[in-house]
Amino acid sequence: MQNDIKLVATDIDGTFTHADHTYDVERFKRILTRMNAAGCEFVVASGSQYFTIRNLFADCADQINFISENGAIIESHGERLFTQEMAEPTIQAMIDFAHHHSEIKMVMCGAQSAYCERGTVDQAFFDLTNFYYHHLEWVDDFSDVDDQILKFAANVPEEKTDEYMALFREKFAGKVEPTSSGFGAIDLIVPGNHKAAALKHLVQRWDITPAQCAAFGDGGNDIEMLRYCNHSYAMANAPAEVKQVTQNICPSNEDDGVLVTLDQLF
């Protein structure tokens, strides 16, 4: 199987990294060397901000590929290949919606930074968000932001996740696609602009096929990617809905499931 796989894509939070956002860097570097020798590309595919996931792989960032913001940005070996902006009317509609639903804690995600709006979230939320979005700024009004807006990240009460997913689908049909990574976190992305669409871009660029791709994930926003790749792995810690769409289950993120599996494949 090793010789067949030319692309490996992995989610980060809950998949590649431990709960404390660390991973075995030296072990990964050894695996990456073997993957490179086998002509296989490594793709980080995350809903997180580009700057955040690049920092995680600072020592080898130019040797790998990044899909960030759930597919809105694609970078390959230091070259920006793709940026998907949200339409201006949709951005304003999302801002208005957030202002009328006070229990939604909204982050507006741009190409240069992410933004929190004063008066709608507190400092504790900002500090937590800063962990996932290393470029994060306070603004007085989302409407005044001058940036390419890629998506919105909504944080809702966890027990109301399904309710809000349905509400977003109803209110923004054809304009926004909600995708959940669990724990009340919902990314609102340009329809069809998910991780699998970004992977397809790279597959076509490298003249390979989904049959030569492997993917690892643990959340709802990984499902399209896991279905797209012939060699699919759900983490042991993933919910049932994710495990149902994969061919394989690998050890949990806390047990280095991705690295364990890649050591077997390469």
* CATH architecture assignment name of the largest domain: 3-Layer(aba) Sandwich
Rg computed from alpha carbons, rounded to a whole number of angstroms: 18 Å
- The end-to-end distance, rounded to whole angstroms, is 9 Å
Structural class given helices, strands, pairing? alpha/beta
Mean pLDDT: 95
Number of helices: 9
Q: Record the strand order, biggest sheet.
A: 5-4-3-2-1-12-13-14
Largest sheet: 8 strands, mixed
Fold and architecture overview:
With 266 residues, the protein is an alpha/beta fold. It has 2 domains: 155 residues, Rossmann fold (3-Layer(aba) Sandwich); 102 residues, 2-Layer Sandwich (Hypothetical Protein, Haloacid Dehalogenase-like Hydrolase, Chain: A, domain 2), CATH 3.30.1240. The chain is 32% helix and 25% strand. The protein has 9 helices and 14 strands. The chain has an 8-stranded mixed β-sheet with strand order 5-4-3-2-1-12-13-14, with helices on both faces. A hairpin with a 3-residue loop joins strand 6 and strand 7. The radius of gyration is 18 Å and the shape is globular. The chain starts with 6 loop residues before the first strand and ends with a helix. The mean pLDDT is 95.
Write a brief caption for the model.
By secondary structure, this protein is of the alpha/beta class.
Supply database-style keywords.
266 residues; alpha/beta; Rossmann fold; Hypothetical Protein, Haloacid Dehalogenase-like Hydrolase, Chain: A, domain 2; 2 domains; eight-stranded mixed beta sheet; six-stranded mixed beta sheet; 9 helices; 14 strands
